[in-house]
From TrEMBL:
One of its GO terms (molecular function) is mannosyl-oligosaccharide 1,2-alpha-mannosidase activity. The active site is at E120 (proton donor), D253, E361 (proton donor), E402. It comes from the Eukaryota. This is alpha-1,2-Mannosidase. GO terms for cellular component: endoplasmic reticulum; membrane. Its cofactor is Ca(2+). It holds the Pfam family Glyco_hydro_47. Residues 1-19 form the signal peptide.
Length: 519
């Protein structure tokens, strides 16, 4: 704790938001689901065993060289990030071991020196600790204590020239409690409120929520280049936007993602977050939605600082399909759901069309309005686009979850077994192309369309927290209790958030209509 900066302010949630049912009520798993669930659990156990052998206590394992890397403060990111997945899979011994690790870790001191990312530390550690605390029935108070320890340090990111600012700086020196004074982006500054508000809920100190929610509010109320679509850059010192770049990809992605989720989590009569999200979706359909000239795939383009449309996308952006399915269901808007399903299909095509059956880090489309862009790409990219309706711009796969995330929502919302078949195909591809025989672990690869390109020798913590959790919850026989909120928020259920799959129950209360802008 750092003195007077975090005064204990009582925390209260109002509860008056109605959300539509997300899951199809007659959802039925096929007989193959049990085998696929076992296969995902096996991948988790093999991956985590390699981590325990060669990297335990460090952030990530290098499964090829049998070493480790400390990329997130050296606190054991893979352990904390994996805890909620362990609990869902019933891996009680590993969960208990992880709790012991947390108990013996000082989260107020970075083991890597230098600066700490407020965003990454929030979604990996704060979200991971609170997810584990909640899912385990609040039986391990040490998890909450350590989450508070992390947040108490990171709150200094809101300090500038002796005052508390609305938007935090993105990086903080834990040794000096001084932030790196530089511009940030809306993903870093606007992807904090779910975790920090839940910390307020469990500690009773509303200061955590006030800080994080205030940042998201500042972004949402700034003048935007297009309605609801905030510019990517932001200056924490002034809370003003920087530039006019619009994208649903990295640097902006999770800000938009959290808008609708925070509206559902807080469940209040304040419609800013739900309305801003729906306005952003409306504007995206109007200004950014495109159809590929080959294959007829739907995708969201970007808008650069000069207002020009750029028809590129990324694996990171592929969360948008699932997010739109979720938000459309919560707002009872089937138009949004339908577009979300189309976006999900386009992203899955990036998996189905490669030699490995795994999608690339970056890719681009060509619409009928942008055929001239074909002149600027290689002959190999042109040929690939002619065959598959898009072309690859960055060929690596670093164990990202977003395509499978959207596939998960599509399955739960529609009950169409096509999405389960896709999950099964991903499981096969991961076992075939990512498995490292020498260590038993799983590694990212440099080129999803070239089997000879080799591995990146890195198992990111989100492999445990997100990829394997989305696959596991896709093929679970239980209903949504362990992965999505019930519509009325009257039962103890959890919600799988993309960033560290932050699991938290919806606030309970009597449902009343969700007021928001309709498309």
């Amino acid at each position: 704790m750092f003195g007077r900066l975090l005064l204990a302010i009582p925390f209260v949630f109002s509860t008056i938001v109605l959300a539509g049912s997300v899951q199809r009520l007659d959802l039925q798993l096929p007989a193959s689901a049990d085998a696929n669930r076992d296969a995902v659990k096996d991948i988790f156990l093999r991956s985590y065993d390699a981590y325990r052998k060669y990297a335990f206590g460090h952030d990530d394992v290098r499964p090829v060289s049998k070493g480790y890397v400390d990329s997130r403060n050296g606190w054991g990111a893979s352990i904390v990030d994996a805890m909620s997945t362990m609990h869902i899979m019933g891996l009680d011994d590993l969960f208990a071991e992880a709790v012991d690790h947390v108990r013996n870790t000082d989260f107020s001191v970075s083991k890597t020196g230098g600066t700490v990312s407020v965003f990454e530390t929030t979604i990996r550690y704060l979200g991971g600790l609170l997810s584990a605390y909640e899912l385990n029935g609040k039986k391990e108070p040490i998890l909450l204590e350590k989450a508070k320890q992390v947040a108490d340090k990171m709150a200094f990111a809101w300090q500038y020239q002796g005052r508390t600012i609305r938007v935090p700086f993105g990086y903080l020196n834990f040794a000096t409690n001084r932030a790196t004074q530089s511009t940030s982006n809306i993903a870093e500054a606007g992807t904090l409120d779910l975790e920090w508000a839940t910390l307020s809920k469990y500690t009773g100190n509303d200061t955590y929520r006030t800080l994080a929610e205030g940042s998201a509010r500042a972004i949402a109320t700034n003048p935007a280049p297009l309605p609801g679509l905030a510019a990517q850059g932001i200056d924490p010192a002034s809370a003003s936007s920087v530039g006019a770049h619009i994208t649903w990809s990295g640097g902006s992605d999770s800000y938009f993602e959290y808008l609708i989720k925070y509206a559902r989590l807080t469940n209040t009569d304040d419609h800013l977050f739900a309305d801003t999200w729906q306005t952003a979706v409306d504007s995206s359909i109007r200004y950014l939605l495109r159809t590929s000239a080959v294959g007829g795939y739907s995708y969201l383009a970007e808008r650069n600082d000069n207002g020009r449309i750029v028809e590129s996308s990324s694996h990171l952006a592929c969360f948008h399909g699932g997010n739109w399915i979720l938000g459309g269901k919560l707002l009872n808007n089937e138009t949004i759901v339908s577009v979300g399903l189309a976006l999900t299909d386009a992203c899955w095509n990036t998996y189905a069309s490669t030699e490995t059956g795994i999608g690339p880090e970056g890719f681009a489309f060509v619409s009928k309005d942008s055929l001239s862009t074909l002149d600027a790409i290689s002959d190999q990219q042109k040929a690939f686009n002619t065959k598959h309706g898009y072309y690859i711009t960055s060929s690596a796969y670093i164990l990202r979850p977003e395509v499978l995330e959207s596939n998960f929502y599509a399955w739960r919302a529609t009950g169409n077994v096509t999405y389960l078949d896709r999950a099964a195909e991903a499981i096969k591809s991961f076992n075939k192309f990512l498995s490292v025989d020498s260590s038993g672990g799983f590694s990212g690869i440099w080129d999803v369309d070239d089997l000879s390109a080799g591995r990146d020798d890195h198992t990111e913590s989100f492999w445990f927290a997100e990829v394997l959790k989305y696959l596991s919850t896709s093929v679970r026989s239980a209903p949504f209790e362990e992965c999505l909120w019930e519509w009325a928020g009257t039962r103890k259920v959890t919600f799988a958030f993309r960033s560290s799959l932050f699991d938290s129950p919806a606030t309970r209360g009597q449902p009343t209509p969700f007021v928001g802008k309709r498309l």
